[in-house]
Amino acid sequence: MATAEQIKALLRSHVERDDSRFYSVALQLAAKEARQGHVKLADDIKKIVEKSQSSYIRSVPNEPVPLKRVNTGDLQGLLEYRPHSVRLNELVLPNDIVSRFEKIIVEQRQKDKLSKFGLTASRKLMFVGPPGTGKTMSASMLATELKLPIFTIVLDSLITRFMGETATKLRAIFNHISQTRAVYLFDEFDAIGTQRNASNDVGEIRRVLNSFLMFVEQDSSDSIIIAATNHPELLDKALHRRFDHFINFSKPGSLQIEKLIAQSLSLFDLENLTLSKIAEIASGLSSAEVTRACDDAAKEAVLHNDAVLTQEILSEAFERRKTGKALFTS
Ligand SMILES: Nc1ncnc2c1ncn2[C@@H]1O[C@H](COP(=O)(O)OP(=O)(O)O)[C@@H](O)[C@H]1O
Ligand SMILES: [Mg+2]
Hints:
Helicase, Ruva Protein, domain 3, 3 domains, 6 strands, Rossmann fold, alpha/beta, binds adenosine-5'-diphosphate, binds magnesium ion
């Protein structure tokens, strides 16, 4: 027979709506009965658990979570819900990265078809590259294209605010990942993505990194996990094995700069401008800086030149960006 402890644990997990704990206690109970020779009873319990577990798994939301149901509960301040609509064609990236994103999107959209053949859609991604090259934007793009919510995990506050209990918090985050299908961006991942043996490593950071690696490895959810970093040199080699795709973002070349300008200033007539000249000035700027220089030029044209954009206005805006003397800082 079930012990008093087991009965209490069953009741408690029911009251707390902790289904996985409920099933685990029930299975322990079945095991105990089996050991005592009550094979039929053990078998019956197991069957009941398996039957209700399969309907429980089916009921776990696999579809986009409606806005009002997004509740980060205990994880407030760690898990930020930041929806931001970005389409793939708004990103200016080299073709090879675009086609990798297209592949990832197609795999995700057809993940059920893949899984029928025992295949899993790529969903653990590492974005590496300098600031302002579109890493955060790409995470939003994947969420938009896949109609999924996006959560950003603020690792800085995870480590500073929860010193000593970061592993517990990480576990809670990964629970959320397995329960709510979404895009999870571990942004500025550097805070924990440092070389595990580096001499400046604080014990806490090392522990967090180890737990993070373990959780990423064990995670078999339907969510998309993205880790983004500006410091590839600090990355531990062990990370490579755990991600389906390593995507390297870099500063834009001249063709990409021209595309960024055309896209940012699509409301203006650019026909008489020589964008290749502007791209020369812009060389070395990040995509974010190019976009901001375009904003500066647009404001200048609207406020001081009857909304007509000239080569001069545009090149001056880029010169200012380059010398760090932006007229409008943003
Ligand atoms: N590849 C890109 N294509 C188009 N716009 C970009 C790109 N990269 C950056 N931007 C612009 O710069 C802003 C900041 O980029 P972000 O994605 O936050 O860069 P990162 O996360 O790599 O630091 C974006 O919101 C967008 O306006
Ligand atoms: Mg970013």
